[in-house]
User: What shape does this take?
Amino acid sequence: MKKNALKAPASKSKKEFRGVPKPVRRAAAALLCTLMILSLCSCWSRRELNTLAIVLATAVDEGKESGELKVTAQIVSPGEIKSGPSSSGSKASQKAYANIDNTDESVISALGGFTHITNRSMYFSHNRVLIFSREVAQKDILEGLDAFTRNFETRMNVYLLISKDKAADILNEEIELEQMPANHIAEMVEAQRSNSETAIVTLLDFDIASLSGSTAPVAPMIEMYEVNGKKKSRLEGTAVFKQGKMIGELNVPQTRGLMWATGKAKKATITIDTKDGKIDLLIIHAKGSMKPDKAEDGTFRMKLKVYAEGNIESNETGKDMSSVENAEMLKKQAEDYIRADIESALKHAKTLSADVFGFGEAIHRDYPKDWEKIKESWDSKFRGLMTEMEIDVKIASSGGLGKPVVQGGAE
Amino acid sequence: MKLEKGSISERALIFSVFCFMQGTMLRSAFIVAVTKNDSWAMAFTGLLGSLLLTAIYAALLRRFQEKNLFEINELVFGPVLGKVFSVLYLFFFLSLAALNTHDIGDFVVGYMMQETPLAAIILLFVLICVYAVRKGISNIVRLSTVLCLIAMAAVVINTVLMLNSMQPGFLKPFFQLPFGKYVQGTVTVAALPMGEVLTFTMITPMLGKNKKAGKMMAYGLILAAVFLGIVLLRDILVLGPMAGVLRLPSYESVRYVNLAGILTRMESLYGVVLISLYVFKVSILLYACVLGLAQLLNFKSYQPLTLICGAFVFFYSLVVYKSVMEHADWGATVAAIFSLTFELLLPSASLVAVSIKKAIRLRET
Amino acid sequence: MKLLMCLAGLAAIAAVDFPKIIKQKQRRELTIYMAIFLLVLALAVFVSLDTNIPSPVKMIQSFYRDVLHLSFKTS
Assistant: This one.
């Protein structure tokens, strides 16, 4: 049975292992390795990189005929990406991206129709920006968004933008600093945190606001303008939605007010106009909160609290702003500035009858039983809602200069 | 009779119970869809319910030291009726194994590789579990310690990374839903992830000192409930009302992680941990099936039955649902009650029968 | 095609398990094993031919919902 040519104990235990002779074991190991190789590379649903069209930005416009949608996708062509910003001398080189578009009845059929046009399959996991044109937003944006929420490849932290004109034009922007407009736009949206004059809205934020019965979702607006013959894009204003349709806009000061009130403003620049000149304050921290307050007769008032802390960034008046009374005056003026912004935002939201601030949700969270009673008539209640504002600005320092540098200032 | 010569330590039992429950992170959609933003509380009320179940199991195990569930059935109800009960339990374990296998196959196919036929993924999965069962329970349980650490680390890391996307306001309003929903949520949590600790009653004889089996199971359940609560809390805080609408809230919330543009796409980590946890869970369920079948048929060893049982679970899991919507429907309506009959009704019947027998015997003497 | 794969798989299972049982010469266990094997074979044939096998889970669901009236309502 066991052939032991060598009587050494090591080989005896190795020749047979649990009654399975060595060649059989070797064959079994080889079979196992083959099986693993076959299964681990998962060739059934394989996706090779050169058959993928990596979509970085998507734009949805109205098609030529009514009821049709044109979807433009910006695809990266990996071979053309260079490491530095493209210099003007390389005008002859290819662009690092390609915009392709397709028109069809709905977003998904338009996306599927891309297979008729390009040789690669669309891969949405890197999609950073989603731009809807104003016409599509005014008709119904939730239909278009459903495809992107339901899909497994798209992510919820896609930035949502509404374009004032054609969305496809935004993707054709000519920029010097980035190779692809999509990255430029996405990073521009992220950079808005430092000025707090634009809402930063991801698909998740928009969906959460849509799911709530009372809040009106918002999305930032982007437009193209021309400078030196080149087309550039700019973020300005906010679009307000209700029932999935765009019903109005907030301009820049109103958007600022919205940001202050909802506590989303973190860094901002406030320009105060005094009789002697302009003073700029750079706000470094800002906190905002809103609390509903129930009066005895059952009506609600909202208490808005804004706390901002900042430094004097520039002083054009020539006067010494670091003295205590001047600092007090600046503080009051900054508070009035913020108050004016918030009030203008409130007024405009009330005319639009759109609760962009989320007051309804705040009431729902703190007084759920009362909310059940008033949620049907929230539109009218919102129009008549009283608000109290408590704004506190702290001017922490006057920057690097104490007294300003003026002619004869040292004497 | 002991068909298994392996043994497991007490700590391994605690970690095994934990890993067993953590796999149900995938099915948290059932609970969140029902109780929405109060789902995190269901983790704890469900824990209380399942501790009740564990008390019943511990009482049974204490009276019959070193005997597993099927042997207890025969001792309590006599050979014929006991075998009937055992067949019912066996059907329960087989169904659980098939349902869980289908779950994980569905996850992989649905989310990652959409064109692959479900059978291919499930085949690979079942092959691994069969191999694990053939190697013996002590090996499977040894896996649980490492897996437990990995799963805990994954949950903690993902939670920490998501801290800046959380909005505490999503937790309010507290407890505003009709009371029936909370009952449904508690029963679902107690029966579906936690009540399945019944499976461990098949394995507890391996402990040796059976007295502490109930305590170990309870510790494992408490640990699992804490982590389940953390996961539910995290999902609600990040996703808000979307958590009740999405099909896999944990997956989507992990996808949202974006730390400085560098630490993104963490969902692959989540997917890997989930699949490992499910391998563990199905291995233990399969082991319980095979051991039970061997005891029912008075086999001397369970080894010949592993492959054929695995094949049965494979075909059963292919047949079990036709679509994801049926799965959600099952989970929302009948799943908890189906599990409860086997987790609550039958063991309580055994306990009652034992007490009656004891009372009769005391009266006779 | 699917049928062939299933049959091949089951044949492989038989090849691994049968020799052991036959070697141990346990008549009773062999018969029981054959019975289970044939059951799984029948199931495999039906599944691979895409026949509409009623899922036991659905039957349980209708049993609990309609006969015993013990189910949660879907919201």
